[in-house]
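To close the section, here is one more complete example, presented without commentary so you can practise reading it yourself. The ligand is zinc ion.
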Amino acid sequence: MLLTETVSGTLFLMRERLWAPWRLQYVSNAGKTESEGCIFCTKPAEQQDAENLILWRSTYCFALLNLYPYTSGHTMVAPYRHTADIADLTPDESLDLWQLMQKCVRAIQQVYKPDGFNIGFNLGRAAGAGIEGHLHLHIVPRWHGDTNFMTTIGEVRVLPESLEQTYARLKTAFEEAMRDGRTD
Ligand SMILES: [Zn+2]
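Output:
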């Protein structure tokens, strides 16, 4: 079950598995075929970053918000190159992806002040990858007690802000960090 208001709404309600929050993406993409396109290829090619919730572009990778966030601030980093093989990333791509992940962590820390993070890849459908053809790294801010809260209300989570609000806040944090010359 996946209940959402419109993307522009102020409330998301969703059911998820606590141990693999990004499996929701599998739900959202169930039934689609490869021919309908890979979002990690099509979104950066469209040059509509705000509409596509792309927060930042680096040389080899880009960061974007997850359409079905587990928590506010749930961000993903992916290489532009369409590959599912993590061992296939070049040294330049690997470093760029890692550094962009670090920038995302800093921006999320600054804006949301989470107590912790889950950061990781789901490689392959068996591991829960929603879009298995294109590598993407999930960055999920966490707070003490957030799982307890979700258990209490029956795996339904309420996010307190819209994706557009999250985008605006994190985009500002990225821009301020770049303007100040901070790279950490
Ligand atoms: Zn792709």
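Once you have examined the tokens, check your reading against these statements. Helices lie at 24-29, 39-46, 91-112, 146-152, 163-179. The beta strands are 2-4, 12-15, 54-57, 61-65, 75-79, 116-121, 137-142, 156-159.
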